Backbone:
């Protein structure tokens, strides 16, 4: 399994609505509100990075209220 962290900037006063929609995506395994440049940080888990890309494009970036995202793929060190 692969993981990815996504930092999300949300329209003013839409944080709760966006947070609730993100919480319903099965591949989102962690979800937190935060302060600063980004409003929400989440962790996605999927079988490969291609699947993560599809989740980002079709399930996350389509949510109204999301202004922009920054994606940080997780790396495994052995």
Residues:
């Amino acid at each position: 399994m692969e993981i990815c962290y996504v930092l999300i900037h949300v329209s003013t006063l839409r944080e709760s609505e966006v947070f609730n929609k993100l919480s319903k995506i099965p591949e989102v395994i962690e979800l937190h509100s935060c302060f600063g440049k980004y409003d929400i940080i989440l962790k996605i888990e999927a079988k490969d990075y291609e699947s993560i890309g599809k989740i980002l494009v079709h399930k996350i970036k389509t949510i109204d209220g999301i202004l922009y995202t920054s994606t940080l793929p997780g790396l495994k060190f052995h």
